[in-house]
Write a structure and sequence with these properties.
By secondary structure, this protein is an alpha+beta fold. 25% of the residues lie in helices and 28% in strands. The radius of gyration is 22 Å and the shape is globular.
């Protein structure tokens, strides 16, 4: 009996070893192909994409020298956007049956909570968008209670705990071992600041809503905690999170996509292709919540900054901002996972998160 068990264990170990060898061999073949193959565009997309990952940046150095990496990333970058959101460009229209989205007008059918779902297929991604007619329904949900001992929750739990019916992942955060408990930058809920550290990292932006339910995308880089508190009070910020705009090998994040109807100017595709989460607002006040797949999901690489801007323009966004993406990109609607984490071992759920944008029921 013992010998039989030993043989089974040995066979299992051999299978595991062969699998690992095959995976490593495949990886090296891919690297060789990217490094020596005829397609410069494929190599450029590979480098810009891998440089946006949290753990695999080192793979880029197996394909290119540091100088080559810098040249490729620089050729697919973004110009700065310095304009503040012009709130006069947003006019709440109430119960609109017709809405202009880009170059066409279509009749929109919303559910009983004023939500419409759209499926979008791109050249290297699949996405879903929630269009929320009443922006006052979009709020920030959080698990953070002010301490390092706090643990995050999966998106469906945050949505459920808030009494909401839909949600997408929110701002930048610290996560060790997928605990997801510590936000970075700032968090505002119902006008109250629950996390205040705009200096956590370079290039911080606040993304959220003011008391007039207008989406605000604000550069808070260099603000002190007291300066941010004064800003929240003076400008009537009700719900917000933070994300980082920092084009460097260490971070490679971006935030503004469209401000006051003007798209961000890009070099090349502006970024690599990855899973993304975006929030935008149309001129009639409706909120656009977009999540894309990527990193191999359904054979898709993901969406670039150029893709995101194109989608937001098509659906009429006056202002739009990129949120935390990658393995964090997820969407829940009516108790169902519409988009889930691309991480293999969390692919039917989400990473644990400290913040999310949630959609409350109509009339709540």
């Amino acid at each position: 009996m013992g010998k039989r068990i030993g043989n089974i264990v040995l066979r299992v170990l051999i299978v595991i070893l062969v699998t690992v060898v095959m995976l490593v061999g495949t990886l090296y073949l891919m690297i060789f192909k990217f490094k020596n193959g005829p397609s410069e565009s494929a190599k450029n997309m590979f480098i810009t994409t891998i440089m946006e990952t949290g753990q695999l940046k080192f793979v880029a150095s197996l394909v290119c020298t540091p100088e080559e990496i810098a040249e490729i990333v620089g050729a697919n970058a973004m110009q700065e956007m310095e304009a503040d959101v012009d709130t006069s460009l947003i006019s709440m229209s109430g119960n609109t049956a017709e809405a202009t989205t880009g170059d066409f007008t279509e009749s929109e059918v919303f559910d009983e909570n004023g939500i419409r779902m759209v499926e979008i297929s791109g050249r290297s991604f699949f996405a879903k968008m929630l269009i929320v007619k009443d922006p006052s329904q979009v709020k920030v949900g959080t698990t953070y209670n002010g301490g390092w001992g706090t643990y995050g929750k999966e998106l469906d739990e945050i949505v459920s705990d808030a009494g909401a019916i839909a949600g997408i992942n929110g701002g930048i955060y610290v996560s060790t071992g997928n605990t997801g408990g510590q936000p970075m930058g700032v968090v505002v809920q119902d006008g109250q600041i629950t996390y205040n550290a705009p200096y956590d990292a370079n290039g911080m932006y606040m993304i959220g809503f003011n008391n007039e339910n207008i989406l605000i995308v604000k550069d808070i880089n260099g603000m002190s905690a007291s300066e941010f508190s004064a800003y929240v009070e003076s400008d009537g910020i009700r719900d917000a999170v933070a994300f980082q705009d920092e084009a460097s090998d260490a971070d490679n994040h971006f935030v503004p996509l469209i401000i006051n109807g003007e798209p961000r100017q890009l070099d090349g595709q502006g970024s690599g292709a990855n899973p993304r989460t975006v929030i935008g607002q149309r001129s009639d006040g409706a909120v656009l919540l977009l999540v894309t797949d990527g990193r191999g999901t359904s054979g898709h690489l993901g969406a670039t900054a150029s893709d995101l801007i194109g989608i937001m323009q098509e659906y009429g966004a006056v202002n739009a901002a990129n949120l935390d993406g990658g393995s964090s990109s997820t969407m829940v609607y009516n108790g169902n996972w519409e988009m889930t984490s691309v991480t293999f071992y969390y692919q039917n759920s989400s990473w644990k998160l400290p913040t999310a944008f949630v959609v409350m029921p109509a009339g709540n």
